[in-house]
Amino acid sequence: MSDGSVYTLKELLSDKNAKLEKTNDAELPFLVTGLSLAPAHSSGYNVCRGASAGCIEGCLFTAGQGRFQNVKDARIAKTRLLFQNRELFKAMLYRDIERWQARARRMGVRLAIRLNVLSDLPWERIFPDMFVQFADVQFYDYTKVDGRVVPANYDLTFSRSESNEETAQKELASGRNVTVVFRSKTLPATWYGKPVISGDTHDLRFLDSKGAVVGLYAKGRARTDCSGFVVDAEV
Predict the structure, then answer these.
(1) pTM above 0.70, yes or no
(2) pLDDT, mean over the chain
(3) Which of 25, 41, 184, 217 has the fewest beta carbons closer than 10 A?
């Protein structure tokens, strides 16, 4: 770590995240887990290529479990392992997926994995064989990078920010769902003519109806956002 100490990672995937835990409590036919890396440049490596200033400022890195130093250290260690020893990272990730698969099968449900809980990496390019090897796993993510072509079992929802609204509208017009962070818990009925559905009930975006705006309520530091990342009213 930054102080010269050694951090030992036992696993990469975890459901110890408020949104993932809420999803697992929703009695849906899925078991969900995720990979929480250290966002933006916080590990010394950039894992959020499309992040805006508002996104970085409002990031949930320090919210919930993230307020604890040991959790931050684990996320940083995972990120550095990915960039410094990719083969070991891959071996650990695939081992974890197999463990979670076995757990999902025992429960009689399907495994869903969010690879970018706090990051925005192109996993379809990093580990393309993963989606073939684990073809029965439903992968999903939010992304601020438009035009990504991904495998059938990898679902992407585009994330609108204060700096990519034009792109978000194009993604929406193309049929891809778009998340928008709203300041009020009472979501507008529409955004740019598209129906707004709640994204806070659960995290399984691949279950959402298509051609919709996924409304998220501003949380953590995002509540005081003034950059335009958080939307105040219906458009």
Answers:
(1) yes
(2) 88
(3) 25
